C-alpha cells in the first residue's frame, strides 16, 4: 500500500510517496513562496505530488490515499479554516487536491499533529498508541495521540500544549495570553533569555560566542555552559526547568507511553534530555506506578510531517 504525504509549510511544500513500512520511496519539494493565492499554492502541491510519484517510479493508480499537514486549523470536511502565515481563510483544501489529482481519499490535518503521528508510528514511538510530540522551535508545537488517534477536540483545534500557562501573568505570548509554556520553552524564548543574561553580564563568554557565530542562537548559552560560564549555566538551567515544567504537566494530565521532544534545541542531545528526564522523574504525580512515561528525542527530523501525513488515511 502506497500513500502520498504532503507537508505544507510556510517556507516549503514537500511531498513524498510512503510505503506500508513507512519508507519514503520518492520525494519532491518547492518553495511555498508566500504571499500568493491558494490556487497557486495548490497548483504547486499537485506538481510536487506528481514529481514525488515520478521519483518513486509509481503512478497515481498505485496510490491509496493522500494526506496533507498544514499550519492552522482544519475542520472535519478538509477545509483549512484559518492559517495566518499562509493567508488562508476557509480554503477547501481537500476538494482542491481532488480537483488537481483525481478522486482519491484525501485527508487534511494540522502539521504538528501529522509530525506527532509520524513519530508515534515510524519514529521514536515505535508504534505507540498513547503518545505526545513536542517541538521546541519558533514556538512550541505539539500533537497528542490517544489510542492511536490524533486528539483534535470538538473544534479540531486541540493539542495546543504550547499555550498552557506555566507562569500566571508571566511573559507575553504571541497568542495574546501571558505566561504560556511557549513563551518560556521555545527556541525563541531561549534566545531572548540568552540576550537578557548577556545584557546583565558584559563579561560573559556568550558575547564572544555570539560574535563568532554572527548572532545569538539557541546554541549560545549551551556552548557557554560547556566553557564554564556562570551566566550561560544559569540560562541553560532555567530553560531546562521551563521545558520540564510543561513536560511534567503533560505526564500528569495524560500519562502517555512516550513524550517525544524535537526541534533544533534537541541537537544538544543528552545535555538536554538527561536533566529533563531527571526533573520528570522527580516531580511526576505517579511516583509509585511501575509504568512511567518515557521522555525521548525525536528521530525523524523533517520527514516526520510527510510520513505522518501519509499515515492519515490508515489512522482515521
Report on this structure.
This protein has 316 residues and is an alpha/beta fold. Helices cover 39% and strands 22% of the residues. The protein contains ten helices and 13 strands. The chain has helices at residues 38-56, 93-101, 111-122, 182-185, 187-200, 206-213, 220-226, 230-254, 270-283, 304-315, and strands spanning 2-8, 12-18, 24-31, 63-70, 73-74, 80-83, 88-91, 106-110, 131-136, 140-146, 149-150, 258-262, 294-297. Strands 3-2-1-4-8 form a five-stranded mixed sheet. A five-stranded mixed sheet has the order 11-10-9-12-13, with helices on both faces. Strand 10 (140-146) and strand 11 (149-150) form a beta hairpin. Helix 7 (220-226) crosses helix 8 and helix 8 (230-254) packs across helix 9 (270-283). The radius of gyration is 20 Å and the shape is globular. The two termini are 16 Å apart. The mean pLDDT is 95.
